[in-house]
Design goal:
The protein is α+β, with helices and mostly antiparallel strands. The chain is built from eight helices and seven strands.
């Protein structure tokens, strides 16, 4: 019967994919990068910027165009004198080559703009990558923290079970009252409530982690890492020079400077070269021609042409009522605004990075304090337990010692979790999150 029940359970688990899977922090981060929609959008923007750069490069190259056509016109148009033009089946064909020679620097600066666009897209991709990593790592440690609290509550419940058994035995021997049993049972009920809360919180954290790594909501995840692992040390403060957001704002200043040159190019001379080959034919001319004898005779001739043509064009803006000056001045104001924005955001990013570093370093001291408090509460609980079993300590004192142990243990879990989150925030603020 038991084998049949187990077989049904495993079949159900296989169908609904509820087998627990073990995932390390590294694996969760890799899955998050592979499935995140924002990462895919950022990568598409990089691809678009590469295409934009390719498009801008083609402006250096000559453009070749072809054309062709056929015409049929009736009735025949009459020309001066006794001549008619017959255009039935006239054809026209050719191709042209256009090469810009000088455009006021517009092509050069358009390529620089496209290059800047490529770099901004790559910086945006890097910023998105770090955002995804930060979210995945924070969710992972939050899930680990809640699971650690569940284990802590279960350990607390095991302690209470031991006290309950001892107190019940003492009651049966007439060494204590029923009130003591009631107090222990009340504390056990409270812990059962806390356990349900923690388990509900753990499921919410699991669902959040599943969303981030692209897993099904029914998938059970078992973290392979815990909060007791080796803690990374803060080290010296690192500046914000590697932060992609700073690079993007710096590039925005360059883009605005290129805009000034592009605006100026609209009011500079342009020179272009055009070469072509054209052909047309089957144009018939009909007329009456006077012969040697003085009489008029019908005459027909066919016109055909094939040949090359070349031209150089020069366009020079002369007077536009100050339009060019005003547009260039406006573009220069945009450069100044971009520079002011860069300075403002650099200061904000530096402040954010210093604050994150301070939280990171302070977190290590909080862990040391929490570890000391937990060690003392553990020692105190062991002593209280021993004295209670020998009748040297009241139940109230023992329950209070257990409560202090629980609080210090919870504080230690939170301190270790917050330390890792502070580390993520610091590395993200300086652009070095891996």
């Amino acid at each position: 019967m038991k084998l049949r029940i187990l077989a049904v359970f495993f079949a159900f688990a296989a169908v609904f994919n509820v087998f627990p899977i073990e995932l390390s922090l590294k694996e969760c981060k890799e899955r998050a990068l592979q499935t995140d929609e924002d990462m895919k959008i950022a990568q598409n923007r990089v691809n678009q910027s590469n295409l934009d750069k390719g498009i801008a490069t083609t402006a250096y190259l000559p453009k070749i165009d072809g054309m062709g056509g056929a015409f049929y016109l009736t009735p025949d148009p009459s020309m001066a004198g006794m001549m008619d033009m017959q255009m039935r089946g006239v054809y026209l064909a050719g191709f042209s080559l256009t090469q810009p020679i000088y455009t006021g620097g517009k092509i050069i600066n358009a390529n620089k703009l496209a290059k800047a666009g490529q770099e901004v897209a790559k910086d945006q991709l890097e910023a998105t990558r770090m955002d995804v990593l930060a979210e995945a790592e924070k969710s992972y440690w939050m899930y680990v923290a809640v699971l650690s609290k569940i284990d802590m509550i279960k350990a607390y419940m095991a302690q209470l079970d031991t006290i309950y058994d001892y107190t019940k035995s003492a009651y049966e021997l007439g060494l204590t009252t029923g009130l003591s049993i009631s107090r222990v049972e009340s504390r056990r009920s409270e812990l059962h409530y806390r356990l349900r809360q923690a388990e509900s919180g753990a499921d919410l954290c699991r669902l959040a982690l599943c969303r981030i790594i692209g897993a099904e909501e029914t998938e059970l995840i078992t973290p392979t890492e815990d909060l007791d692992g080796l803690l990374p040390q803060p080290g010296n403060f690192i500046g914000i020079d590697s932060r992609p957001e700073l690079h993007m704002i710096q590039k925005n200043v360059d883009v605005k400077k290129y805009d000034v040159k592009m605006t100026l190019a609209d009011f500079l001379p342009t020179i272009g070269l055009q070469l072509g080959w054209n052909a047309f034919g089957n144009i018939k001319m009909k007329s009456m021609v006077q012969g040697p004898d003085g009489n008029y005779y019908p005459y027909t001739s066919t016109m055909n042409y094939k040949g090359f043509v070349g031209a150089v064009s020069v366009s020079v803006p002369i007077f536009h009522w100050g339009e060019g000056y005003k547009k260039v001045k406006k573009a220069k104001i945009e450069v100044n605004n971009a520079e002011l924005s860069l300075e403002k955001n650099r200061k904000l990013m530096e402040l954010q990075a210093h604050q994150a570093y301070s939280n990171f370093t302070d977190g290590l001291e909080l862990i040391k304090s929490a570890e000391k408090a937990f060690s003392e509460s553990q020692l105190n609980l062991d002593m209280m337990q021993d004295q209670y079993e020998h009748g040297l300590m009241t139940l109230t004192d023992l329950l209070e010692a257990q409560s202090q142990w629980h609080t210090s243990y919870s504080n230690l879990i939170e301190a270790k979790t917050q330390y890792r989150i502070n580390r993520i925030d610091y590395l993200r603020s300086v652009g070095l999150l891996e």
